[in-house]
Amino acid sequence: MKLGKHKRGILVPLVIVFVLLFTSCNNTSYKGSNNIVEPSEIADAMKDNNIIVIDARTQEDYNKGHLKGAISLNPSELTVSEPVKGMLAPKEQVEKVLSEKGISNDSTVYIYDNSGGVYSGRVWWVLKVYGHSNVKVINNGQKGLELAKLEMSLDVPNVSPTNYKAKDANDEMIATKDYVQKVAEDENSREKIIDVRSRAEYDEGAIPKAILYPHTKNLYSDGTFKSARDTYLFYHDLGLKKDDTIILYCKSSFRATQAAIVLDQAGFENVKIYDGAWLEWSAGDMPTKPKEEKTVPNAGDAS
């Protein structure tokens, strides 16, 4: 049945109103959140002398231009190479690095990168593990700062060394190989293992019971973090509940920390990083084929 011009004239505005109402319910801004800060908030925030902005990109990228006033701190400075490359550095090393960078225990720290939150997420996680509560990742990283038209510079800021004192590592945020092995071998375990690597990496081998959900699906097509609502819905489709213990891993658990940010923000309460990750697991005589494969088709296509 064809609609008359009058009815079509009424229908179109109604559709527009419906779309606006629907999209307004899905807040993609992270203003006031615990783990993520919007680029638009950075300019005013940096007027506070207690704010430290970390550029977590490579030193080469930093030298080509960075947010004015930002210091360079690549996550590799907070890692060790034993028993495998890229593992969490001991407290003494973290204290030394943060002190040399001019970071105090009461500093509010904002971090950005150009890798979808992977590098900044790793720095965020290390600081959280060692008890630094005031730390957030800048949404959309370098790209977001440029879109917000914040000033870039080649100048390296002068910093005054501090005497940073870290807390003991929070073991509740870390999953050891022994812990992961017990979960993988226990058919009745309620803990969930999430593999955030790519499909190709997963197909070559994965921890038993691991559910594939690539870290790239935590981002919209423009590079911003998915909203807390969308994050919850997609992970809920994987069978995750907010009170589940969730173990995240990738090759060296850099990408896993990016996933930890959005999961924590979405209200998942018990998130652990398997720090040794695939490098450690695959180096030993451990099973490497998943018993079950779960994915969410097109979960990363939302924009």
Short description:
By secondary structure, the chain is of the alpha/beta class.
Topology at a glance:
Layout: H1 5-24, E1 36-37, H2 42-45, E2 51-55, H3 59-64, E3 66-67, E4 71-72, E5 79-80, E6 87-88, H4 91-100, E7 108-112, H5 118-129, E8 135-138, H6 141-147, E9 152-153, E10 174-175, H7 177-185, E11 192-195, H8 199-204, E12 211-212, H9 228-237, E13 245-249, H10 255-265, E14 270-274, H11 277-283
Parallel strand pairs: 1-8, 2-4, 2-7, 7-8, 10-14, 11-12, 11-13, 13-14
Antiparallel strand pairs: 3-9, 5-6
Helix pairs in contact: 5-10
Structure, explained:
This protein folds into 2 domains: 36-153, Oxidized Rhodanese, domain 1 (3-Layer(aba) Sandwich), CATH 3.40.250; 171-283, Rhodanese-like domain (Oxidized Rhodanese, domain 1). The protein has 11 helices and 14 strands. The chain has helices spanning 5-24, 42-45, 59-64, 91-100, 118-129, 141-147, 177-185, 199-204, 228-237, 255-265, 277-283; strands at 36-37, 51-55, 66-67, 71-72, 79-80, 87-88, 108-112, 135-138, 152-153, 174-175, 192-195, 211-212, 245-249, 270-274. The longest helix has 20 residues, at 5-24. The radius of gyration is 21 Å and the shape is globular. Mean pLDDT is 89; it is low at 11-26, 290-294 and 297-303.
Using the coordinates shown, work out and report the CATH topology of the largest domain.
Answer: Oxidized Rhodanese, domain 1
**Main β-sheet description:** 5 strands, parallel
Which strand order do you get reading across the main beta sheet? 1-8-7-2-4
Overall tally of structural domains: 2
- Cα-atom Rg, whole angstroms? 21 Å
Shape: globular
What is the architecture of the largest domain at the second tier of CATH?
3-Layer(aba) Sandwich
Determine and state the CATH class of the largest domain: Alpha Beta
Tally of separate helices: 11
Which bin fits the share of residues in helices?
25-40%
Q: Spans of 5+ residues with little confidence (pLDDT < 50)?
A: 11-26, 290-294, 297-303
What is the residue-averaged pLDDT? 89
Strand content: 5-15%
Number of strands: 14
Secondary-structure element sequence?
HEHEHEEEEHEHEHEEHEHEHEHEH
Query: First CA to last CA: what distance?
Result: 34 Å
Give the quaternary arrangement of the chains. Answer: single chain
Identify the CATH homologous superfamily of the largest domain: Rhodanese-like domain
Structural class assignment: alpha/beta
